[in-house]
Each structure stands twice: as structure tokens, then as C-alpha cells.
Automatic annotation (TrEMBL):
Primary location group: membrane
InterPro entries with a match to the protein in the record: GPCR_Rhodpsn, GPCR_Rhodpsn_7TM, Olfact_rcpt, Olfactory_GPCR
MF (Gene Ontology): G protein-coupled receptor activity; olfactory receptor activity
Annotated protein name in UniProt: G-protein coupled receptors family 1 profile domain-containing protein
Sequence ranges assigned to domain G-protein coupled receptors family 1 profile in this UniProt record: 41-290
Ribonucleoprotein among keywords: no
Entry GO terms, CC: plasma membrane
Residue ranges crossing the lipid bilayer per the database entry: 25-49, 99-119, 140-158, 197-221, 242-260, 272-292
Domain of life per record: Eukaryota
Locations listed in the record: Cell membrane
Record's bilayer topology term: Multi-pass membrane protein
Length: 308
């Protein structure tokens, strides 16, 4: 019965961020600028890390992966959002909604696990410097990056399958600017208990698990830094992970607020703005944070521009 009702649904209507025409025009310009900056900034990071011989360490290997993920993450929602700002009726096909949810959750999950892997890399570099080269070999980096992608893709597959097995018979109007889990569950007239279990187990394991591993890594990192006797030594050690720590705080703060809490506390009118922070703004800020706070990246960028 559920599958029959679901397959008959051909499209959803997205309510978007606002229904004010003047506001939509302003938001169109804003998100267009953000998207262009995101794509250019992350593309520049990928190009710089690829071409610079000075950026051959595991940290920059993961950073290049992060830049690729951020571009894909933003692309899963922003182009459609820009199109909707210029449309009177904001429609998305059923299968378009399936694809958007899958890719958005996929890249979000990949980023979570990737940030944990980057924290582990910083832990090895600062807490076990003598074993760093041995442990963080290129083979190990490739394995870790592959695991990040596999976990993110499989986690999203679980969410997508369980979400779209539901019958959506309350309404076709999705109270969001893209297809996300909470507003889709709100449209279902079936029991969503299983879906909530999937969110807390699969999604919670990826988000919270990655967050815990990241925090534990930084606890040990801070302890090691505090043992360094000289102020210069402590500053140098902390500078190697400061950029990553800022990105972690920005990303996890908003994503945990959105997903890891009871559905009874959801306020769809307010919560549809939150993904703008972790799914659109943070991917734009990541290359800026790394290029400004990381001296090696800054030097490589400067050298690249001087050559061109």
C-alpha cells in the first residue's frame, strides 16, 4: 500500500526560504555569490594542493578530499535553490527529490568521517611524531579516504531507502528549500518510528561517532601541546590544527542541532535555515579558513599566483 501511494506521487512543491519576491531576488544574488566563491575557492585548493610539491603530506591529501566533497555538497542543493528563486512555483520531481536527498546526506556523511580522519592525522603528527611517517603512509591515507566515502554513501542509502518507502499523503508541499529528512517525514501519514530509529542509529553513528573520535583526538592533542615547554613550540604545534578545529566547530555545531534531537522538537520554519549554515556557508568558509590560517597553503597559493 505504501509503495503504491509513493509511486503515484510525481513531484513535490518546495516552499523555499521565503515567498517574498524582493527577498528572493536579494537571496538569489547572495547565494549565487556564495556558490561561485565556494566552487572557485575549493577548486583553487584542489589545484594548489595537486600542483604544489610542498603540499604532499597526508594532511593536504585529506584537505583536497574535503574541498572536493564541499563542492559536491553545495552543488547538491544550491543550483536548484537558485532556479527556484526565479520560479513562481518551486517544483521538484519525486526522483529528483530522491537524488537530492541521497547526495546531500552522502556528502554530509563523508565530510563528518573525513573531519574525524583529519583529526586522527593531526593526533599522529603531534602526539606520535616519530611514528607519523610510518603509520600515515599513502596506503593508509588512501584506505582512510576510501572508508570515508563508503561510509557516507552507505549511510545515505539507508536514509534514502527508509525515507522514500513511506507514503506521502498529507501534502505535496515540502516545508524546506530542498529535500531533507525531517520535512519529508512530516508529510507522511504512516508511522515514522523506524525512520527515527534509522536516523538515531545510522545517522547518529556517523555524526556522533565521528564527532567523538574528533574530540578525543583533540583532547590528546591539547595534552601533548601543553607538555611542550616553550611558548613558540606550543604555538607552532597548535597552528597545525587550528584551522581544522575551527571547521569542526562550525560544521558539527549546526549539523548536530538539526539531526540529533527528538523529532518533537523540530520547528520546520526555523530548521530550514540551519542547513544553509552547514551545507552552504561552511563549504564556502573552509578554503578561506585553511588558506588564511595555514602558512604552507598561503605560501603555495602566493607562489602559484606569482608563477601565473
Amino acid at each position: 500500500m505504501a509503495s503504491n501511494q509513493t509511486t503515484q506521487l510525481s513531484e513535490f512543491t518546495l516552499l523555499g526560504l521565503t515567498d517574498n519576491a524582493k527577498s528572493e531576488l536579494i537571496l538569489f544574488v547572495f547565494f549565487l555569490v556564495v556558490y561561485v566563491v565556494t566552487v572557485l575557492g575549493n577548486s583553487l585548493m584542489v589545484l594548489t594542493i595537486t600542483l604544489s610539491s610542498a603540499l604532499r603530506s597526508p594532511m593536504y591529501y585529506f584537505l583536497r578530499n574535503l574541498s572536493i566533497v564541499d563542492m559536491c555538497y553545495t552543488t547538491s542543493t544550491v543550483p536548484k535553490l537558485l532556479q527556484d528563486f526565479l520560479s513562481e512555483v518551486k517544483r521538484i520531481s519525486f526522483y529528483g527529490c530522491v537524488a537530492q536527498l541521497y547526495f546531500f546526506i552522502s556528502f554530509g556523511g563523508i565530510e563528518c568521517v573525513l573531519l574525524a580522519a583529519m583529526a586522527g592525522d593531526r593526533y599522529m603528527a603531534i602526539c606520535m611524531p616519530l611514528r607519523y611517517t610510518e603509520v600515515m603512509s599513502w596506503k593508509m591515507c588512501t584506505i582512510l579516504a576510501t572508508v570515508c566515502w563508503i561510509v557516507g554513501l552507505l549511510n545515505s542509502l539507508a536514509h534514502t531507502v527508509f525515507t522514500f518507502r513511506l507514503p506521502f499523503c498529507k501534502s505535496r508541499a515540502l516545508n524546506h528549500f530542498f529535500c531533507d529528512i525531517p520535512p519529508l517525514l512530516a508529510l507522511s501519514c504512516a508511522d515514522t518510528t523506524i525512520n527515527e530509529v534509522v536516523v538515531y542509529t545510522a545517522g547518529g553513528s556517523v555524526i556522533v561517532g565521528s564527532f567523538i573520535l574528533t574530540i578525543l583526538s583533540y583532547i590528546f592533542i591539547v595534552k601533548s601541546i601543553l607538555k611542550i615547554k616553550t611558548v613558540t613550540g606550543r604555538q607552532k604545534a597548535f597552528s597545525t590544527c587550528a584551522s581544522h578545529l575551527v571547521v569542526v566547530i562550525l560544521y558539527y555545531g549546526t549539523i548536530v542541532f538539526t539531526y540529533i534531537r527528538p523529532t518533537s522538537t523540530y520547528s520546520l520554519d526555523q530548521d530550514r535555515v540551519v542547513p544553509v549554515l552547514y551545507g552552504i556557508i561552511t563549504p564556502m568558509l573552509n578554503p578561506i579558513i585553511y588558506s588564511l590560517r595555514n602558512k604552507e597553503v598561503h605560501k603555495a597559493l602566493t607562489s602559484h599566483f606569482q608563477k601565473t
